[in-house]
């Protein structure tokens, strides 16, 4: 029980590590090896001094965060060499593990850091404070916390909109390379593809790179398209419930779970209008996987969607 009670500490400590660039510092400054808290603190201070003029770093607090995350496998602990056997306190260095490697930026767009920064953002955490009220009142918890729904909030808060879109783009990159290869024959047969609710255009970009003959059209709301800078695809402002441009195929990736069944049917009908022989590609996840690990992840998504979306359930 206490493990569950205090489990909220984990993503917030992980968020601190990402904001302090700890995985990147170890990856780039450790030459492939571990670093002590003092060494990491030196590089944090240097980065802060050049950007903010503040070079103060509390090594004690830093060590405790590293030690905590290492206990959950985020970092690897390694005793420093050449220490006396009878040393009262062993000096420890911290290295990367499979988990923390997924948080290294490295310029390849593969870091899962943006997803963490979204989930651990105060905007979503405030909505979770009203979770019990959704049972008592049948209310929309995000609306309860912020006085508007998620899409309205994104349209009116550019900073959170950026965090949200970067997280969605990160999730996209983690799966779309596989999708582009798995559906290779299907993509070869189409000349135009519309990604409905395509965000920054990341999914289309990956597909077009693999299949350069495709004209990719990224359709999303104006406040999303305003920040979409990915090249190689066409960015188009629009509302998927009102009009979807004609194309050989329409792709809906992780958007149907944002809406109630009736709205999903309406969107699908709009997608099939004027393309009787065209294709509608749906990329999504579901809660029905029987494996324990996948089911647990699916249920985490389910609760998250219940907090952020009105229709209340993951499929």
Automatic annotation (TrEMBL):
One of its GO terms (molecular function) is protein dimerization activity. Pfam families: Dimerisation, Methyltransf_2. Its EC number is 2.1.1.68. This is Caffeic acid O-methyltransferase. It comes from Pinus pinaster. The active site is at 257 (proton acceptor). Keywords: Methyltransferase, S-adenosyl-L-methionine, Transferase. InterPro entries: COMT-like, COMT_C, COMT_dimerisation, SAM-dependent_MTases_sf, WH-like_DNA-bd_sf, WH_DNA-bd_sf. The gene is comt. One of its GO terms (biological process) is methylation. Residues 128-308 form the O-methyltransferase C-terminal domain. SUPFAM superfamilies: S-adenosyl-L-methionine-dependent methyltransferases, Winged helix' DNA-binding domain. Residues 3-104 form the O-methyltransferase dimerisation domain. It is an enzyme of class 2 (transferase). The keyword Methyltransferase applies. The keyword Zinc does not apply.
